[in-house]
Amino acid sequence: MKYFNPRTVLLAAVCLLNLSAFAQKGETVKIAWIDPLTGLMAPVGSNGLKSFKFVAEEFNKSNVAGVKFEVIGMDNKLSPAESVNDVTASVDQGIHYVVQGNGSAVAGAIIESVNKNNERNPGKEVLFLNYAAVDPDFTNSKCSYWHFRFDADTSMKIEALTTFMKDQKDIKKVFLLNQDYSHGHQVAKYAKDNLAIKRPDIQIVGEDYHPLAKVRDFTPYIAKIKASGADSVITGNWGSDLALLIKAANEGGFTGKFYTYYVSTTGTPTAIGTSGEGKIFQVSNGHYNMGGKMQSMMAEYKKRSGDDLYIPAIAHIFNALTLAMSKAQSTNPVKVAAQLHGLHFDSVNGALEMRRLDHQLQQPLYITVWQKADKKSPYSPENTGMTLAVVKSFESYVSSTPTTCDMKTP
């Protein structure tokens, strides 16, 4: 009669469980998408969720890891507390990857939640893939091994934007208008610091903040801007806060220029219309007329949904994840994190690097201007007949900024 060692049987069962949980080829990898689907920012959130699902489907057709992705939307109502609850719910569902981008206050709460979870629950680790929350602290004083940022942070964007602005001799007086939370304050801080070095002759004639996603009429703010004598506005506003600001500027007769981050977000192109031609500038890690894989995905997305695909960082995430999983030969988040740490990969805007020091993606940035669509720049968002055309490109090494991150690795 043959006897079995119970410990051997138990070990074999655990091994089988691990193999089934972290098999690579053919496995479905669930990603929790945590962003707003209600409130004033719901249109931006809805576009983000649909975009993630669409790009996941594109990568499910073929990728180097041989995995399938399933994106699960969670409405955080733009609330840090709700977002922490969503992270907990993700862990309970066995989800090891979360993505978020709308709101740095939310991102900060997610980073803390993921750090605590991964410390307290070995075997249930979660990676936070940040696609648009750009507070520089997340890859400096608050950096985390479990957080990877796929957008450029504010220090990088303002570095590029002010490098462009220093050569615009018509800029004499600048007003800083931003949302009243960490992101808005960082935009103002870095703008003042950079302009003081690059264009000390420029006057900062006003600095103001407004509540996030609560203002429905920006007329009083436009009145302040006009009264200041500003010829230019720097704003990190996004979603309804940018669309309504531009609408109020058009209606209030402000003829100055806007230097922005998020013209492409849902609703803003329509708010600008044709009146912003030559007056609205955007700094970002992509644009409407990038060509290649991004252009083909944008065309297909618009054909299917009637909406615009405008977040290159989504493609970055899936390109990086599939390559890291292939290198790790696993979807285990700990093993995947080790491969993402310092990963070099190709995406829709070229050869990129997930910097080992702080997990800040190093990538090219572009300055674009709002103009009529033409043969060179044909893509028209929200069927406006307008587009964002490139006026300046910055290679990764130009837009890169230093880090103070002292990353603790597992």
What do you see in this structure?
The protein is α/β, with parallel strands linked by helices and 410 residues long. It has 2 domains: 6-153 and 292-362, Response regulator (Rossmann fold, 3-Layer(aba) Sandwich); 155-285 and 364-399, Rossmann fold (3-Layer(aba) Sandwich), CATH 3.40.50.2300. 40% of the residues lie in helices and 20% in strands. The chain is built from 13 helices and 15 strands. It has a 7-stranded mixed β-sheet with strand order 7-6-8-9-10-14-15, sandwiched between helices. Strand 12 (350-354) and strand 13 form a beta hairpin. Helix 2 crosses helix 11 (312-328), helix 7 (219-228) packs across helix 8 (240-252) and helix 11 (312-328) packs across helix 12. It is globular and about 60 Å long.
Residue share in helices? 40-55%
String of helices and strands: HEHEHEHEEHEHEHEHEHEHHHEEEEEH
The coarse silhouette is globular
Describe the main β-sheet briefly.
7 strands, mixed
Q: How big a fraction of the residues is strand?
A: 15-25%
State the name of the first-level CATH class of the largest domain. Answer: Alpha Beta
Major sheet: arrangement of strands: 7-6-8-9-10-14-15
Unreliable segments (pLDDT under 50, ≥5 consecutive)? 6-21
Query: Could you say which structural class the secondary elements and strand pairing correspond to?
Result: alpha/beta
> What is the CATH topology assignment of the largest domain?
Rossmann fold
Q: Return Rg in Å.
A: 22 Å
How large is the count of helical segments?
Answer: 13
Mean pLDDT: 94
* Distance, first to last CA: 46 Å
Q: What would CATH call the homologous superfamily of the largest domain? A: Response regulator
How many structural domains in the coordinates? 2
Extended strand count: 15
CATH architecture of the largest domain: 3-Layer(aba) Sandwich
